[in-house]
């Protein structure tokens, strides 16, 4: 039955790499923020759920070889890494604690089409760029057009600057696309009201987009990968002790900021083959399933991230489709094969819902699986997949601070079409 599920081997990079002498190193991209946010927009960033994220985006450096090695072990069929330690993956807990983004709330959905993106840009930002490419604008235009507010700035100017700042975070750090310098104005439509923006599960949008990008990068002919690669890299460093540089700095929150400092000692493999060899040899014994249980780490996590009882309930479609993430590992197939696909398609403007018969069929496939299939080492006696035990922890709710709310008229989006099942 595992053979029926794993069906992309003829295109997967892990198979292609065994047949060529040159390793594929993916082109990775991140646009760090030039400086910290102005204190004058702190209330708006807190309301929208981006305050912690705004403190991250400086000094991050990506390791393309580490990222390329992880993509070789990623299976699009299950949204998991296949390793000797069995299947593992990035979860909403990782997004929540690494990035400080809210994961409790509604899906970030909507059409990518608009009658007039220029009108949207002018109404919510007060300016229109010379060129709007299919609803996308240049990141450099945002940086050059919106200067940091001062004490003489009006509330409207602060609001527009806050929207532009969040757009730069989304387009440069959280959900960058392969263009490397464009961000879609669809995200601007979610920032009309900062309090309403804080009710969205931005962390789920980042995770679903990262999943989609990793799946798209598994074919051997792909040369680039987008999305929040700093999250992927930080997840690997927290889980694989043998792949992390030594840091003498104390932990800070969000946890991903640990890697923004210069390493005091970094005797790490620099060759893709060496990284893959370490993953093969050491991951089974050294993979850390619960890194956030470390007292030194828990000490820097804000209380609201550990005590909010609603933090592990994510509303995917409506009140009848909430996920209790504390049951993530007892109901693993239902979550990763059903709901994450809904997230991916809804975020990209394509509502998607499996029929009950199809969902039951997929559950049967997963239950009958004998274990993960390792493309580099196929073991006939593989046992049942061992899922990680994540510590229950919560998500932040938006800080409700007083501030003006703009209520402009939002352009009517085109109706969305239902998409057929992908599996």
TrEMBL record:
InterPro entries: AminoTfrase-like_pln_mobile, MAIN-like. Residues 53-308 form the Aminotransferase-like plant mobile domain. GO terms for biological process: meristem maintenance. Pfam families: PMD (PF10536). Residues 383-415 have a biased composition (Polar residues). Residues 365-423 are annotated as: Disordered. Residues 365-381 have a biased composition (Basic and acidic residues). PANTHER family: PROTEIN MAIN-LIKE 2 (PTHR46033), PROTEIN MAINTENANCE OF MERISTEMS-LIKE (PTHR46033:SF8). This is Aminotransferase-like plant mobile domain-containing protein.
